[in-house]
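Q: Here's a chain of 93 amino acids. Please give me its 3D structure as tokens.
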Amino acid sequence: MVKYRKPSGDWETEAVTIIPKRKFPGTITLMDIPHTEWREVTSSPKGWSARNWATASLWWCDGSRNLVEIKELVEIEAGRTVRNFDLIKIGRA
């Protein structure tokens, strides 16, 4: 169980107020990306991976957890800290 900790910085202060909920069950799709912005896939993309921050965090977005809690859960799964990924930007989408 994740215990509440007082927000320690600007990111945490904002993230604790954001409680995202998925619009659709399942994995990330291209549904909301205009066809004009699609790019050719040149490698084999993985679906779920503990270190794929977008996909790993998506599974925790059930409308009951804030972004600080989600960040902690994906870090526990991955065994490392979230890097180079803005959960606030994704959470507001």
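Q: Can you summarize the key feature?
A: The chain has four helices and no strands.
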